[in-house]
């Protein structure tokens, strides 16, 4: 069994600037780390943090430096995949010291922990919001699943293979979920796909396997399925998630702000 913290959609900008002219995402991330650290005694042992993309908003080296400093405060191994706002070269430079980071090309990787295999997939198409899994990434996934053996398998990617009903987000979703489904071997064990991008909690299935998306640390999108729904973000609710692997696996989203208590009942 392994236990992971999942963070997603940090959208960190260079110090002294605001994301979309509204959000001080560096300060938001710093406060989020403080809240998570305060909860660690209640949460218990963690084996790593999965960051499912959009670490940076602007692709700047300064934004990645800030994000890396805050991630280091968690004291956990970091496993990350790029999102549509990330810059692949700057992302690679920021996490180049990690054993899982490939030296060039797509940032597809695997990392084996006791009884758990983590697989990272690169859906970034630089210059556009939508994501795509290229043939080399799909082949990488197939091989990694076939060789996983009896391990629990977690696949991390930014663009989830599901639809939310939020039109402006679905328009920049994963372009080829059918190719992803075809790349999953029919006889592989259970896989959980963990993603971000949609700034909220959504649950779906692909080829009989679970897909879950975590809330963003900095903003949210209102669930508005009308054709004329306004395009834009909300300042909340925000949050993160935890994933346990193994025979009694579970995934749970947590809000950054919690209420008073506990009160006896």
Provide a quick synopsis of the model:
The protein is α/β, with parallel strands linked by helices and 265 residues long. The chain has helices at 25-43, 61-73, 88-94, 135-146, 167-170, 177-183; strands at 3-7, 48-52, 78-81, 109-113, 116-120, 152-156, 191-195, 202-206, 209-213, 239-244, 250-255. The chain has a single domain, classed as Purple Acid Phosphatase, chain A, domain 2 (4-Layer Sandwich), CATH 3.60.21.
Shape: globular
Q: Strand order, biggest sheet?
A: 4-5-6-7-9-8
Note the run of SSEs as H and E. Answer: EHEHEHEEHEHHEEEEE
The CATH superfamily is identified as: Metallo-dependent phosphatases
How many H/I helices?
Answer: 6
CATH architecture descriptor: 4-Layer Sandwich
Portion in strands? 15-25%
Averaged pLDDT, please? 95
The CATH class, by name, is: Alpha Beta
């Amino acid at each position: 069994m392994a236990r992971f913290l999942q963070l997603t959609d940090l959208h960190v900008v260079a110090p002294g600037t605001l994301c979309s002219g509204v959000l001080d995402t560096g300060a938001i991330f710093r406060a989020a780390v403080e809240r998570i650290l305060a909860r660690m005694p209640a949460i218990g042992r963690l084996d790593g943090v999965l960051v499912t993309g959009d670490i940076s908003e602007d692709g700047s080296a300064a934004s990645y430096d800030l994000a890396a400093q805050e991630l280091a405060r968690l004291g956990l191994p970091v496993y990350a995949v790029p999102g549509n706002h990330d810059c692949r070269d700057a992302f690679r430079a920021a996490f180049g010291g990690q054993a899982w980071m490939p030296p060039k090309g797509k940032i597809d990787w695997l990392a084996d922990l006791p009884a758990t295999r983590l697989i990272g997939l690169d859906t970034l198409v630089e210059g556009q919001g939508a994501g795509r899994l290229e043939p080399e990434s799909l082949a990488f996934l197939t091989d990694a699943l076939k060789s996983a053996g009896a391990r629990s398998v977690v696949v991390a990617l930014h663009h989830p293979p599901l639809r939310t009903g939020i039109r402006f987000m679905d328009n920049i979703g994963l372009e080829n979920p059918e190719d992803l489904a075809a790349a999953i071997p029919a006889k592989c064990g259970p896989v959980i796909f963990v993603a971000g991008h949609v700034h909220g909690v959504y649950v779906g299935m692909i080829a009989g396997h679970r897909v879950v998306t975590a809330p963003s640390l900095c903003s949210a999108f209102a669930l508005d399925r009308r054709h004329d729904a306004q395009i834009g973000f909300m300042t909340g609710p925000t949050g993160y998630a935890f994933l346990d692997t193994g025979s009694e696996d579970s995934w749970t989203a947590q809000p950054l702000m919690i209420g008073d208590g506990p009160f006896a009942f």
